[in-house]
């Protein structure tokens, strides 16, 4: 086995990130992708990479992508052929250290963490495809990839150990990958960063050009959401469970400009996890029909109407939405801008009727005020009053 493959076999990637908290992960670590890595010396068996050097790598990279998996399956050339081809193309460094002195998310605004679950072949396809997408977006040899193990919080481990002692009938097969948690609701949030809520699950409809058969997906189950925050554009990334061999991801794009945010596009990414080369069954951008949701930064947007995002025969519908990005640490919606403005048809009708009634009342009051009573009155002792009327 070649030295690079031996190094690859020592690294283990880990999975699910706890939402809204610090990214808990441990080594060994595998760094690749940046051209600066060729000048970085590989540490010895017990040595650690210099933390200042790592901080410089985080800061100089256009983006940092941390891949995590909590499975116990070791990496090998047979199980991860696509990732092996990536390592053959880029410079990489392996470090046996168990912890990093600094968090990459603190030094790069384009840093994100991606869960990898399922069988090794599925993880290989997802890892390779997502890293290629990052390289296309930010530039070749400008993206730093990091491979690490998940380090769970102590109280989570204690709860799992207690549950295992209580339930003797539950057992797991050693080496089997842990499934990613499935959430059966229509609330997609990264606490402190973004919240998107719809009343019913989103519906994605696609027309197969080959046989002209429409496929409809009700996206009722999703996994943990992630948020990619940038200066001019941010993305809420939500992955849905569709089929055993298909992984469907929606990327809600938020444009930030002049103190306002707007959401006019959604990227749809579908990948066949059984394909060895990471083939994409769908990769398109849908645009909203009509006026895009928008609000000032620090405010949410609410709409009871149906929002329709479309690109040709691919259509995504959202019902009764409320959304807010760039929440800056908040966990609840701020005051909402509603898509149904003040000048709706019922309100205009009411104002019209009220105006007519006020006009009639004004004429009546003016007519009453115009009545002039006589200034002289008859009496028993006085002369009878005589009025001359001229036509």
Automatic annotation (TrEMBL):
Key words of the record: Membrane, Transmembrane, Transmembrane helix
Annotated Low complexity bias: 169-178
Top-level division of the source organism's lineage: Eukaryota
Annotated stretches, region: Disordered: 158-184
Organism: Anopheles albimanus (New world malaria mosquito)
Biological-process GO terms, alphabetical: regulation of cellular pH
Pfam family, one: Ac45-VOA1_TM
GO-annotated cellular components: proton-transporting V-type ATPase complex
Keyword Ribonucleoprotein: no
GO molecular function list: ATPase activator activity
Localization, UniProt: Membrane
PANTHER family linked to this entry: AGAP001624-PA (PTHR12471:SF4), VACUOLAR ATP SYNTHASE SUBUNIT S1 (PTHR12471)
Biased composition (Basic and acidic residues): 158-168
Domain V-type proton ATPase subunit S1/VOA1 transmembrane residues, every copy: 341-378
Keyword Transmembrane helix: yes
Similarity-based family: Belongs to the vacuolar ATPase subunit S1 family.
Name of this protein: Vacuolar H+ ATPase AC45 accessory subunit
Residue stretches making up the V-type proton ATPase subunit S1 luminal domain: 193-325
Bilayer-crossing regions: 347-369
